[in-house]
Each structure stands twice: as C-alpha cells, then as structure tokens.
Write a structure and sequence with these properties.
The chain has three helices and 57 strands. The chain is mainly β. The strands form ten sheets. The chain has a twelve-stranded parallel sheet with strand order 4-7-10-13-16-19-22-25-28-31-34-33. Strands 1-2-5-8-11-14-17-20-23-26-29 form an eleven-stranded parallel sheet, with helices on one face. Helix 1 packs antiparallel against helix 3.
C-alpha cells in the first residue's frame, strides 16, 4: 500500500514538473503586421486602431484630411505624395511611444490647413506618460498662421518629457510667428535628442527653440533667415549636464537680437545651468546684433572651426569665464576685432581667439578663371567648393561638333540636406548663344544634361538645377554633396586649337553625347518582419533606369535613419534590376529599414527563438524519460517485496 502511494506520489510529482516545464515554454510571439492604406483600411486612423504595437502602416500617395493620432508604438511610412492635410486641428499627434515599441513617422507631406493660433500644429508630441524613441524623418511640413512645425510638450504643459527623439531629413516651413521646432520647458528635462540634416524656414518667427533638452546633437541643418533670434537653446526648469553638440550647421541670418543663443532661464526665472556645450564647424552669416551669444551659467567646452562671415559682433561671451574659441574664421585673415587685432567679426572680452583661421572660407559663391577671364558661381543652398575650370583640350574628346567657349567646370556643393535640390547660377564673362546645351563628362562619356538648365536666353547668366543623388550629381549618392563636372556648349564656329603648351595643331576627337542615366530605387521590401538576435534579414531593392543610357549608382541602406552600408548597382538603359542587402542586430528592438530613402518597412528582434523552445522541449523529454525509469525502478522493488 505504501509502495502504491509512492508510485502515485511520484506520478503526481512528475505531472507537476511537466506542467511547470510547459509554462516555461514561451508563447510564439505575434508577428509584426504590415497594414496598408487605403488598400486595407480607408484612413490612417482606421489602420492605427487596427494595428498592434510594433506594426508598420504603409500609406499610399493621396490626400488624407484627418487628424492622425498615434497612441501606440508603430511605424507610419508615407509613399511619395502621401499628404496629411486636415481642415482644422493638428495634423499628427503622438501620445505613446516606448523603447520596446518605438514610433516612426516617415516620408509624409504634412500640411494642416487651419491658421488658428496654436491649433494646427504639424506634428505634436503630447503625452502625460512621457515618450521615448520617436523618429520623425524625411517629412515636408508646412503650417499656416502662428503654428509650430514640430512641437514637443513638457512639464510646463502638464506633460512628461520626450527622450531619445530623432528628427532627421525633414523640410519645415512655418509662415506665421511660430517656430519650426519647439521643445517646451520641462522638469525632468528632455534627454538624448538628435536633430540632423533638416531644413528649417520660419521667416517671421524662430527656427529652433530647445528648452530643457539635456544631451542633444544639432548637426548639419540649414536655418534660413528669421525675423528674430534664429536658434535659442536654453535651460529653464532643469540643470543640463550632458554634452550639447552644435556642429556643421548653416545659419543664414536674422533681423533682430542674437542669431544663435545658448542661455539660461531665458523665459522662466532661474537659476539653472547648462554645461558642456561644444560648437564646431558652423557657418554664421548675416546676423543682426550678435552671431553667437553665450549667456551666464553656460559652460563651453570649445568653439572651433566655425566661420563668422559677417561684420559686427560675431561672438559675445556673457558668462564671465574665458572660453576657448581658437581656430575660427572671423571674416578676415587679420583676425577678429574690436578687442582683437583684426578687421573681422567682433569678439567680446573673455574670448581666447588666437590662433585664428587665415585661409579661404566656405561660401555659397566662388570664382574660376578661364582664358584669363573670371567665371562666377553661386548656389541657393550649401557651400560651393573645389572650383576647377579646364579647357576642352584637357579631355580626350568633345561631344559632337560643340565648343565650350568658357571652359568645363568642376565643383562641389556641400552642407546641404541629403537628397535636396539646389540651383546653381553661373555668370559667364560673355554672352552664351541662346538655346545652347550643357554637357557633363561622366564615366568617360559626354552626357547631355541640357534639361537641367534654366536661364538660357542668350545673355551671360545660366542656371542649373541639381539634385543630390539624382539628376545632375555625378557621384549618384544622396549624401549631402553634389559633384558636377561639365559646362555650357554651342555648335562649333571655328576649328578647335590645342593647349598653348603642346605646340601642335590637332583637334580633339568628337563623340556622340549620350543622355544622362536616371537610376533610382523604386521600392524595397524585407524577407521577414520578426527575427532573433544575429539572424539576418534580407532587404530587396527594385531599381530601374528610365533613361536609354547604361549607368551605375551607389545605393545606400539605412537602419533607423543611419547609413548601414553601400552597394553599387549597374543598370542598363530602360532596364530594371534587384539589389539585395542583409542586415542583422544582436539587441532586441524594432529597426526601420530604407534604401535610398525608400522605406522597406521594419523588423523586430526578439529574444525568443525556435531553438529556445527546442531546448526546453528536450529538457521536458529528459524529465519524462527519467520519470519513466524511476517508475520502473519502483515497480521492480515492489515486486521484490511481495
């Protein structure tokens, strides 16, 4: 009887162990879904309501006159031409986003139609619980009236701060007295922001106001001219201790006050402090009272390699502690004034300015010399650099029976938003016959790019419209740099002569010019939307060449808006091809993927894997086998006692 009870007890124990082991087998995680608007859902809000955290919503081109509210961590991708344009109210409001399920809004035109004060923001981040890991990328935002482009609430609005915010590749225009990007006062402070590669344009207001943002990188942005201060970064309710990096920005002017100001308690009575500010590689131009203001309570690491391009006070230090501002350009090789020895932009007391830069500075205009005559270049965006003018005889051939009376030009346009379009104005030393052509020498061939020309009416001024990574950019990569070798040409009237140094009279061979290849990524997709640590996901990009000329292009894979890798693609004229990448991550989380700014979707890395389940099931089988052996052993012993 005792033995029978022992056997029963053993079986019960085995059952308990087995049930416990079963509970250890994690449920198969839900696959992240891709929802399509309007194919599956008529509106964006309907898709959000149906989505689960971690899902991706792909929105086709078209107008969506709705107030989009994102109340869970999702990825919202807009195809080219997808426009959110409500008649009244905010266009997009984000109320929830976490590290586990971050939120992304990518690729939309966002144009709220109302001009009521503070009632029709472009994007509002507004959460009583706080938000984390939000990415706003590649959107074109424009607002009417006194409405901010992007607004982030804080404790001054009864909201918690936003952490780990990334704003990249956006083009924001604000028509009224408002701010392109505004962060409200907050305690605790907002933290860990990246604001990069954006274009801000608020002519009647301010371009950037960051209040209580602790640890931020503001890099490679364009800040157009504003009526008042252009950029204000201030501590109001919180002491800021982490590094604030302000680098490689192009600040184009303001009409009143300081153009860029790092200050404390600008609006709210203090005291608060701001520590570890580093200001490098920026262009300060056309300011009103001051180019750069450092206020009391601000600790500066250094101010280096900046270009102060205007007159008057360039740098005003008001914190009473000497700051390191060596190796900057002050608008003159003689250095800064008035406390300095030179005639350049002024510096205040408590500024260590020596040594300063004495070389040519980056500018939006430049010159080249052809046959002893000057050619003038200017650009609407960025900086024009490395101007080289060469004669046609420096090339192995010329395009058909065309002459280049003013030479062939090589130059680079830098400091622009990746993928953006710029217009180059070229002032020639004489008139160019009307309806002339423009050729580029690319990959050993002359390419007809006359379609890029604007003004071409027989006078001495021509214009070119060039797109970074596209038509008119020789490197073919949307990397914030346009490379353009080429020149204006017309039908030959005389026989070409060789360079003066050759002593020979030969005419360069002629070639038939070919049209410029037009290669672009049309779509991209992922092999999986969920994976496990270090297991790769395949990214497939469909690429087409809509011209008749063969060509090649460098294609960039982005992960969470950052360059992952680059591959070259060769596509024959009129053909299409596919290019594949593989990407993996060891850390759990959601990763947004795009190829040349074409969204491919996102994949999620989860800890649970099939191998984990197999291991646990194997353990269960071992326990069961052991239990069966134990029962057999007990039975043998019971028989021996009979």
């Amino acid at each position: 009887m005792i033995l029978r009870r022992s056997v029963c007890t053993t079986l019960i124990a085995i059952a308990v162990i087995f049930s416990m082991m079963i509970t250890l087998v994690p449920a198969t995680p839900a696959q992240a879904a891709a929802l399509n608007v309007p194919a599956n859902y008529p509106t964006i809000n309907a898709a959000i309501a149906a989505a689960a955290a971690g899902d991706t919503i792909n929105v086709a081109a078209g107008n969506y006159p709705e107030n989009v509210v994102i109340d869970k961590g999702i990825t919202l991708n807009g195809a080219p031409g997808a426009t959110i344009n409500p008649a009244a109210g905010h266009a997009v409001t984000i109320t929830a986003s976490t590290e586990a399920t971050p939120t992304t809004v990518n690729g939309f035109n966002i144009t709220p139609q109302d001009n009521t004060l503070n009632s029709a923001l472009g994007i509002a981040i507004s959460s009583v619980a706080g938000t984390s890991d939000i990415t706003l990328s590649n959107n074109t935002i424009s607002t009417l009236g006194d409405n901010h482009g992007i607004w982030i609430g804080g404790s001054s609005n009864g909201l918690l701060p936003a952490n780990n915010l990334t704003v990249t590749g956006n083009n924001i225009t604000v028509t009224g007295y408002a701010t392109s990007l505004y962060a409200a006062h907050s305690t605790p402070a907002h933290a860990n922001w990246t604001i990069a590669n954006n274009a801000f344009n608020s002519p009647n207001g301010c371009n950037l106001e960051l209040y209580d943002v602790d640890g931020a990188t503001v890099d490679t942005n364009i800040f157009e001219v504003t009526a008042g201060s252009n950029v204000i970064i201030s501590s109001e309710l919180s002491d800021l201790t982490n590094l604030m990096l302000f680098s490689n920005n192009d600040i184009r002017g303001n009409d009143a006050g300081s153009m860029v100001a790092f200050i404390t308690h600008f609006i709210v009575a203090g005291p608060t402090t701001m520590g570890a500010v580093q200001i490098t590689g920026n262009i300060f131009d056309n300011w009103a009272t001051r180019g750069l203001r450092i206020g009391a309570g601000v600790t500066v690491v250094n101010i280096r390699q900046n270009y102060f391009m205007f007159t008057g006070m360039g740098l005003a230090n008001q914190n009473g502690v000497q700051i390191d501002a060596v190796n900057n350009w002050w608008g003159s090789a003689s250095g800064p004034g008035p406390v300095g020895p030179g005639t350049g932009a002024g510096v205040s007391v408590d500024v260590l300015y020596q040594p300063w830069l004495t070389t040519v500075v980056p500018a939006n205009a430049g010159t080249g010399i052809h046959d002893g005559k000057t050619v003038l270049f200017s650009t609407t965006n960025g900086v024009i650099e490395n101007i080289v003018v060469r004669d046609i005889t420096a090339f192995p051939s010329k395009p058909g029976n065309y002459d280049f009376p003013y030479g062939v030009y090589s130059f680079e346009i830098t400091r622009i938003v990746p993928g953006s379009t710029v217009t180059i104005t070229i002032k020639l030393p004489g008139n160019l016959p009307p309806n002339s052509k423009y050729y580029k020498f690319q990959n050993g061939k002359w390419v007809d790019v006359t379609s890029l020309m604007g003004s071409n009416n027989g006078d001495s001024i021509i214009t070119l419209t060039l797109t970074d990574g596209g038509l008119g950019d020789a490197d073919g990569v949307a990397n914030g740099i346009i490379v353009d070798p080429g020149g204006p040409a017309h039908i030959s009237l005389t026989v070409m002569t060789p360079p003066r140094s050759s002593g020979q009279t030969t005419t360069p061979a002629t070639t038939t010019p070919v049209p410029l290849p037009n290669i672009a990524v049309q779509s991209a997709s992922l092999s999986a939307t969920t994976t496990t640590p270090d297991k790769p996901v395949t990214v497939t990009a469909d690429i087409s060449n809509t011209s008749t000329s063969d060509g090649d292009k460098q294609v960039i894979l982005y992960v969470n808006g950052q360059v992952e890798t680059t591959k070259g693609a060769i596509v024959n004229g009129g053909q299409s091809s596919q290019l594949t990448f593989t990407v993996s991550r060891s850390e759990p989380g959601t990763y947004d993927i795009s190829v040349d700014n074409v969204p491919a979707g996102s994949f999620k890395v989860e800890l649970t894997s099939a191998s984990d389940n197999i291991l646990i099931i194997s353990m269960i089988l071992v326990v069961v086998a052991f239990s069966i052996a134990l029962i057999a052993f007990v039975r043998r012993h019971r028989t021996s006692y009979r």
